[in-house]
Amino acid sequence: MAPVLILYYSRHGGTEQLARAIGVGVEAGGATAKIRTVPPISSDPDAEHPDDPAAGPPFVTLDDLTGCSALALGSPTRFGNMAAPVKHFLDSTSGLWLNGALINKPACVFTSTSSMHGGQESTLLSMMLPLIHHGMVIAGLPYSEPALHSTTTGGTPYGVTHLAANNVTTLSCEEKQLCHAQGKRLAQLASALASMNTEKGNAV
């Protein structure tokens, strides 16, 4: 099965920690996690295609998106919406939309905020919209996950979140549990859909 792409943008590390914890869940679900980030937006035209970061995951390419079996998309909250670099990258994927490259691939979303009511759920919903336009299958978190009932930090049925109060980037125990559950569920859904497509192909 193709890798599960975990794509994020992070300024202070909270969203990155979510991405890495989701990756642990993806691997536990039997898939390969491929972690990538998006470049910051610059007013310098020459910086449109910057070199990969000196440390951390490389910048994403459209081929990464085309070649994945599933997508986990993460962004910090910016006024209740995704950060501009994430939107900028998604706006560059119209070619994939035209040829239906992402149709029926499962996807989930995740975010980090510095306050409890800083727009986590609206940010998650805003990230779902372009994925729905791409024909992706949105995978939330069911309430069968115990940590959704006990968390006092991040965690929603729309996707995993992190409360980065006072710039704390370390995930809480419940946030880690939910990340692992989200990643594992995404990997299992990707495997199930891949099997269905294989059986359908064999039947034809």
Automatic annotation (TrEMBL):
It comes from Alteromonas alba. Residues 4-187 form the Flavodoxin-like domain. Keywords: Flavoprotein, FMN. Transmembrane segments: none annotated. InterPro entries: Flavodoxin/NO_synth, Flavodoxin_CS, Flavoprotein-like_sf, Flavoprotein_WrbA-like, FMN_Rdtase-like_dom. GO terms for molecular function: electron transfer activity; FMN binding; NAD(P)H dehydrogenase (quinone) activity. Belongs to the WrbA family. Residues 36-55 are annotated as: Disordered. PANTHER family: FLAVODOXIN-RELATED PROTEIN WRBA-RELATED, FLAVOPROTEIN-LIKE PROTEIN YCP4-RELATED. The keyword Flavoprotein applies. Its cofactor is FMN. GO terms for cellular component: membrane. This is NAD(P)H-quinone oxidoreductase. It comes from the Bacteria. Pfam families: FMN_red. The keyword Ribonucleoprotein does not apply.
